[in-house]
Design brief:
Helix content is 30%, strand content 23%. The chain is of the alpha+beta class.
Length: 527
């Protein structure tokens, strides 16, 4: 019997003992989610919900508190040692879930992985140039220009164990949007407050408390059973029956029913995410009776589609009166927002018809409208409502409604004419997020989510200036100018700030709800 086999057996036994102890010492919380996470690999897709779930397993160098202030996590402190270099002092004594120690080598490997050209998350570090190990617990991160938002960016850049990545041939990122999988797709090894015990994709993922977590736990949860329940009616029934304890997406239409139950508490507010429609501005339509050109490239057509939307009716009927109508692409709480951005074009059906006629489409045209059945809050309802409004203006929308798993690959490939879209500007919590990742032309780490050719040279120049500017007032001015160009050109049709509603049974005594809509179950107490 080899020493290697004995060591492996001992490590496995220790892990099982830790898992068993965690289960015995804490409460079980059953989380009924609206949808499945994209992957166990946090670099596989830049999607807030997946990252918020995986933040229970993986951690960044820094993190947001419940009131969205940046605080130390795997790094204890940081400072600028030059205009373009940030130095991070790492926390000592931290261990990954497999027992490996956390060091600077893990930070370097993680930054190399997340900024790799094939990484779907590389846009979350738009100014990154390189990183260097100073010693085992000191890392320098160099930016390509002076850049003030690195700590914000790093809140969602989770750190992997380099040894684990190498051993499992996972040093390169996966990509769930393109179907690129690897060992990290279905396996995890972080430093966070919970670790993955088991996973059955689309059925249940079980997390158990990490008894060796470096932080002082503020929770008494030993086990989290995460179950995707895509049907709103089924999710509500599960909450009312006690089958689940918590859902972070309580259906708006059922809030009165849930709130009337003596066993359930409802928490409701508006989140940071703004929702809008985006056009594919390529040379030709993807699916249309117009074959030789793209009517959506005509500003008059985009304005007509904007004016054809009765946003008050959408807010009242589809969103149950709980959304916040907006004319801006970012929420008021996001740095870079100004009231001037928030002024909407008025609903004007006759004006919309005249604009279409002036553009040469008095009888409208057909186009594909790509919406998701399990994405944004009440997305199916508001897409159906807007499709009906566009039909009344003489247009012929073909509503394609399907799960995110089917629609996202089409969006990434540009196989759409119009899409519903939402952006929360996380983790930056700054307008530069949408500007550099969505609106900017594709180049390097810029425009990762620019699926519809929205970039323009004048906006690109302003975005690049904002990325290099350390003076806050000047940076805000550049961002406002770029956002106003997008607004005045009607490159997008803003709709609303998305409402967020959580529901929990009275078995949960304390839970923090922040406007980034991220559950932080390491701050949760159960009775």
């Amino acid at each position: 019997m080899s020493k290697k086999w004995l060591l492996a057996t001992a490590m496995a036994a220790a892990l099982m003992a830790t898992v068993g102890g965690a289960q015995a010492q804490g409460k079980t919380l059953k989380w009924g989610a609206q949808r499945e996470i994209a992957s166990l690999d946090p670099y596989s897709f830049g999607e807030t919900f997946t990252l918020s779930v995986l933040n229970h397993v993986y951690e960044g160098l820094v993190r947001y508190t419940g009131d969205l202030k940046i605080e130390p996590a795997l790094a204890e402190s940081w400072q600028n040692v030059s205009p373009t270099v940030w130095r991070f002092k790492l926390r000592r004594g931290v261990k990954f879930h497999n027992g490996n120690p956390f060091t600077a080598d893990d930070v370097i490997a993680s930054l190399d992985r997340v900024t790799h050209p094939t990484s779907p998350l590389k846009g979350n570090l738009p100014a990154y140039k390189s990183s260097k190990k100073i010693d085992d617990f000191t890392v320098d991160i160099e930016m390509d220009a002076p850049y003030p938002l690195l700590p914000n960016d790093l809140t969602n850049i989770f750190i992997f164990d380099k040894e684990w990545l190498v051993a499992n041939n996972s040093t390169l990122p996966t990509d769930s949007g393109k179907g690129v999988k690897g060992y990290a797709t279905d396996n995890a090894n972080g430093t966070g407050p919970f670790m993955v015990e088991s996973r059955r994709a689309d059925a249940k993922t079980v997390f158990v408390a990490n008894r060796d977590w470096w932080d002082k736990p503020k929770h008494n949860i030993g086990r989290i059973e995460f179950t995707p329940i895509t049907s709103p009616a089924t999710r509500v029934a599960a909450m009312l029956s006690g089958e689940i304890d918590f859902t972070n997406v309580a259906p708006l239409q059922d809030l009165p029913r849930l709130g009337a139950s003596p066993d359930i508490k409802v928490m409701q507010t508006n989140e940071l995410r703004s929702v809008y429609f985006a056009f594919n501005l390529g040379d030709k339509m993807f699916e249309s009776d117009v074959k030789d050109k793209n009517p959506l490239k005509d500003k008059r057509v985009r304005e007509a589609m904007y004016r054809a939307i009765d946003i008050d009716a959408v807010q009242k009927r589809a969103m149950r009166g709980l959304s916040r109508n907006t004319g801006a692409l970012v929420a008021p709480a996001i740095p870079g927002y100004t009231p001037a951005q928030d002024v909407r074009l008025p609903f004007d059906l006759d004006g919309a018809k005249k604009l279409l006629a002036d553009a040469g489409y008095p009888n409208g045209f057909s186009f594909q409208m790509n919406c998701q059945s399990d994405g944004l809050v009440n997305e199916e309802e508001f897409c159906q409502a807007v499709a009906s409004m566009w039909s009344r203006a003489g247009l012929k929308p073909n509503l394609s409604l399907a799960p995110r798993s089917q629609q996202t690959p089409k969006r990434v490939k540009g196989e759409f004419d119009v899409i519903s879209f939402g952006w929360a500007n996380e983790p930056m919590i700054d307008a530069y997020s949408i500007l550099v990742q969505v609106i900017r032309s594709k180049s390097g780490a810029g425009g990762v989510f620019n699926w519809g050719n929205w970039g323009r040279a004048d906006m690109d120049a302003l975005i690049d200036k904002a990325g290099d500017e350390l003076d806050t007032s000047k940076r805000m001015a550049y961002m406002n100018q770029a956002l106003m160009i997008a607004k005045n050109e009607h490159l997008f049709i803003p709709l609303h700030q998305q409402p967020m509603a959580w529901a929990m049974r009275n078995s949960i005594s304390t839970m923090v709800q922040a406007s980034d809509n991220k559950p932080r179950l390491w701050l949760t107490q159960m009775k």
